[in-house]
Design a protein that fits this description.
With 446 residues, this protein is an all-alpha fold. Helix content is 52%, strand content 1%.
Length: 446
């Protein structure tokens, strides 16, 4: 997809100002909820660095924005206070080993990249960067720790760490650290100006993570080294490639397509059932991945169909179909692919929010929290108005099970309070990232 390399500063300032007025205006005195980037004067000096304004200059519908409820805000504050105290002396964060799940003291475990990346993404979403925000010092140390970890990794490796047996690896997959680290780096770069002196270091580390992810890909698009719920590892790897491509990293389009197709294949539209063989038999894990990795294409279909109907290429009452998409201008092959994505998204998102599916394993482990996160981000990327209802229901559920000390922990599999608290924060604060997520799913030509 072609990318542009210019933007009007005034548009960014006005857009971000409007967004702040529409959402979180009562909270702005407490912390910066929304990031308003500053365009670089020398974008061309940095390979792959593309400045983007609010929702690609399309504007942001105020009906899509949702303020943070008071109960959620207080929950976030308690969680942040607990989480930052869990940082290790090396700057990282750890979940501990699968063999010693009884060890819940965050300072009694070794830092691992997957958990560190999740904490980093939570801090970013809560308005921090390595240079600004209440916890900028925490994020700065965390970022340096991850960069050193990636830079020291073997160039022929299939993960960014030699650490083995962590809770996250055993339950999601042996190579999950690379996927989550890549996702963190993409999120970081999306919030920092292209002229930042560390930009080249970030993109080099991101490219290394991308190379590792692609090298560990199976022929069917999944990622090698499945854990108990390997479908989640593969889903986050696919999302990481999508985000990395958006930030200009060296992503192989074929690898990205295979990764996304694998996730879509985990849901059968005709029967309305999920393929759970690599999801530990849990429907939630499979359908959340299917929803997440079909969201952007589903949004493209919706946007294209709307335009085709306005232009008279497609009948006003025509449903989405392969023939309708061909009439809208797609080749037969692309029409078939996009129609599949659209149907998978719209069926899987319903299942992902059904009460009997949301229960997951029966109680909440880290895998459930990750699945909730995927569903919520999917609805925003897909520009789906149903995201507001999802947010209200899910945040209410999370606030109700928060521990007295401000943390969350899993009750099966991934039990780590650090990992579960970071993931819960990412869910609660997803409305802080409306701009970033909408832009990632934008169909505007760049």
């Amino acid at each position: 997809m072609k990318r542009t390399f210019f933007i009007a500063t005034a548009t960014a300032v006005v857009g971000c100002s409007t967004l702040v007025l529409l959402s979180f205006s009562s909270r702005s005195a407490h912390r910066g909820h929304l990031y308003c980037p500053v365009p670089s004067d020398n974008v061309a000096d940095h390979e792959g660095c593309v400045f983007r304004t609010v929702y690609e200059g399309e504007g942001l519908d105020s009906n899509f924005v949702l303020s943070t409820p008071d109960l959620v805000f207080r929950s976030e504050e308690r969680a942040l206070d607990w989480l930052v105290r869990a940082q290790g002396g090396d700057g990282g964060f750890g979940a501990g080993t699968h063999a010693r799940q009884d060890v819940i003291d965050p300072h009694a475990v070794q830092s691992d990249p997957a958990t560190t990346a999740m904490v980093g993404m939570a801090l970013l979403r809560m308005g921090n960067t390595p240079e600004k925000g209440r916890y900028s010092n925490v994020l700065n140390k965390l970022t340096d720790h991850l960069l050193i970890t990636v830079e020291q990794a073997d160039n022929a490796a299939r993960n960014v760490t030699t650490l083995q047996g962590t809770q996250i690896q055993v339950k999601l997959g042996q190579n999950i650290d690379a996927a989550l680290t890549a996702q963190f780096l993409s999120n970081l770069m999306g919030r920092m100006p292209c002229s930042h002196p560390k930009h080249d270091r970030w993109i080099n580390a991101l490219n290394k993570c991308v190379s590792i992810i692609q090298r560990s890909q199976n022929t069917d698009g999944s990622v090698q080294g499945d854990g108990w719920a390997g479908v989640l590892q593969s889903s986050f790897a696919a999302s990481a490639l999508e985000s990395a491509k958006f930030q200009g990293a060296q992503v192989n389009d074929s690898a990205l397509r295979k990764a996304q197709d694998f996730q879509k294949a985990n849901f059968d539209v005709s029967s309305g059932s999920a393929v759970t063989e690599r999801a530990a038999g849990i429907t939630l894990y499979a359908v959340s991945g299917s929803t997440r990795n079909s969201a952007r294409e589903a949004r493209e279909v919706k946007d294209v169909m709307e335009k085709a109907k306005k232009d008279g290429k497609v009948a006003e009452a025509a449903p989405v179909s392969v023939d309708a998409l061909e009439d809208a201008g797609y080749t037969r092959t692309d029409a078939e692919r996009l129609n599949t994505a659209y149907q998978v998204y719209n069926s899987a998102k319903v299942q992902a929010q059904a009460d009997n599916v949301v229960s997951g394993f029966g109680n909440n482990g880290g895998e459930e929290f990750l699945s909730f996160l995927q569903t919520g981000e999917s609805l925003v990327i897909g520009k789906d108005n149903g995201w507001r209802n999802w947010y209200q229901q899910t945040t209410s559920r999370l606030v109700g099970i928060q521990n007295n000390d401000g943390s969350w922990n899993g009750h099966h599999c991934i039990t780590s309070p650090v990992f579960c608290t970071a993931t819960s924060l990412l869910i609660l604060s997803v409305n802080n990232d409306i701009e970033q997520l909408l832009a990632q799913g934008s169909t505007v030509k760049r």
